[in-house]
Amino acid sequence: MSEAIDYSIFVGTSEDGLAQMSLAIDGIDCAACIGEIENGVKALPGVVRARLNYSTHRLTVAWSDGAAPDRVVGQLEALGYRAHPFAGRAEESEARHARWLLRCLGVAGFAAMNIMLLSVSVWSGNVTDITPETRDFFHWISALIALPAAAYAGQPFFQSAVRAIRSGRLNMDVPITIGVTLALGMSVLETAMSQPHAYFDSAIMLLFFLLAGRYLDHEARRRTRATAGNIAALRGEMAHRIGADGVPIRVPVQALQPGDTILIHPGERVAADGVVASGRSAVDESLVTGETLPRALKAGDHVYAGSLNGEGALHLTVTAGGENTLVDDVQRLLDGALAEKGAYVRLADRVARLYAPMVHLTALVSAIGWLLAGAGLHDAVMIAVAVLIITCPCALALAVPAVQVTAAGRLFRAGLLINAGDMLERLAAVDTIVFDKTGTLTLPEPALALPRGADPELVALAGRLALSSRHPLAGVIAGRAKGPALEHVTEVSGQGIEAIIDGRRARLGSLSFCEATAPADLPADASLIAFRHGEKVLVMGVAQALRPDAREVVAELKARGLDVRILSGDRPAAVVPVAEALGIVAAEAGLNPADKIAALDALKGAGRRVLMVGDGLNDAPALAAAAVSLSPASGAAVTQAHADAVFLGRRLWPVLAAVDGARTAARLMRQNLAIAVGYNIIAVPLAIAGFVTPLVAALAMSGSSILVTVNALRAARPGRKEEAVGDDGAAGETVALTEVAA
Prior knowledge:
7-stranded mixed β-sheet; alpha+beta; about 15% strand; 30 strands
């Protein structure tokens, strides 16, 4: 009897009243998958819509009566794709905002192109023989295009300015709104009075450049969060809850309540904190505590969410979160660490508070000064408009976001997804890197270590027997199989599995089960598995292996003047070989989450700016407490949620790429800020002196924006050393902590 699946918590309602669910899809390789997935799902009875976003690998399905979400998931699995529900309510709102910004940008761009065509005719005609009637006609056509376009495209700035004024403060959108409004108003007045100059082109160009920067910044951050969200969704965070009739039903982990009984199958991750009600097994808690050796469990033992179950099935009673549980300890530490990080105030906010009132004051003083000097009201107002436009914070607003967007694209190509907008600025100031060991410096999955002189045929035979085992460590041995799985395999609970091969009994499991002794040349931290076939005995170790490029990356980080350290929750016997292999002197082992935070506080007290790289639940508080933090995509969901960036793949070189990219980005940000400030130092006095018309002011403002944008594009180029390490890492082999036989 197949178990039922409860997806109700993920089902929402679409705008047209249909049931709707979003799914993160794994296995999409090319654009041809779009039609296959959409057509395959729409073939189900009751499905009305199926739309796949190829860039985010997100499928949205809407259905009426007759369809069910489990059938949709089943259909996708039949097509060869792995699908998991994605609860992305906040992201849907962000996507709508991005589409709105893009529409505003499109309207501003369309209007700017048409108005500039008309303006070129007027500019050339003013110095030749254009008649006043023709010039006024072109101005009125420009007004018909500019006024509705500005009313629509300027909404992001107008709404923000209104909210700021209502709350009694000023932001950068206030001078933008005033400058655009005055430019358009004076242009209409000038056109009505048949004057030679109008400034519709200035106002629309200003909106276009500002919207381009705002959309690019928003879209880059949204796509990064969407991809990182897919990683978490594809974990399939479901649990097998035992119903009142004793039948297990799959439910999201969010639906579990204290007192529920859940079934943990062999090889599954534990879905919640709880107490073992029945069953015996061993769990791998490396993702939770950093300890690499499995812990034996029996009835009455407590187990933590995120632990990997071994060969035995467990019935677990979900417990209420008390003050002494690991999750509560971690959450309390996270709250404290995040509160401390919240004290940082971004430079852009400080600049905005000072910049906006200074712009208004400068424009007002300029107008009053010219009036006192005997100028007419028209000239004084136009000079004030020129000051507002030429000092418009377009270059200043683009100075940092343009670099961030470009650098984020470079890091995305390197396999690093940024979650925090100011991560690059903080990372550039780092002088110390602290690594967790398990799953960070080492690969998340273990590697097979063999004794010297191991018989390859015996290893292959053990692999064929391991294909029939559900023990998580057996999968490592099964990878060496050369041939199909063996038949008539018997499992001995808590011991291993056995079968008859070529008339002789074969066993795979514990040392005692196989009547074997441990050889001396296997890693001290390895979990030992024995294989016996008749009189032939082979003892293998399953141990952690370094990431392929860990040695090169650590060496490059040291060459850049960074102090590299290890803080691990694992045993000293497991940490010391890693530190020695990588040449890291400062390495501490056996640390709990509070110990890690204390170590980071000590470094912070010594004036160090620390980058923390970790993957386990026990690393989450340290990630939040550090100046900046990274987590591998294989890490626990809570670590990804509190890390400033997530890196993908088996290699460690995205950490190096992040450091290099952040330093380059910080340098370019400073250059762009210097360009923006220098531009204002030169341009503002000219505008105040009356040498700049609003049109020239708009062109100067646009020129400064283009200059900082072009300079920001330099952040897309990776350094030669960084590129070389990335190439080497891609081609490198997994390096075990000890000699691993073929």
